[in-house]
Amino acid sequence: MKAHLITRQGWQTLDKELKYLWKEYRPQITLKVQEAAAQGDRSENADIHTIKGFYVK
Length: 57
Prior knowledge:
The protein is mostly helical.
């Protein structure tokens, strides 16, 4: 099995993206889901479906 190598710069880029996703993007999405859920029935809530489309890929 061939090993996939990564440069220091590549690692730093991925690490920066991961930190952004966990520290900034995920909390924003969580807040949007909470706000949409507070509006009532989640199965018919367009905001929930829109957010899920962006977050779950």
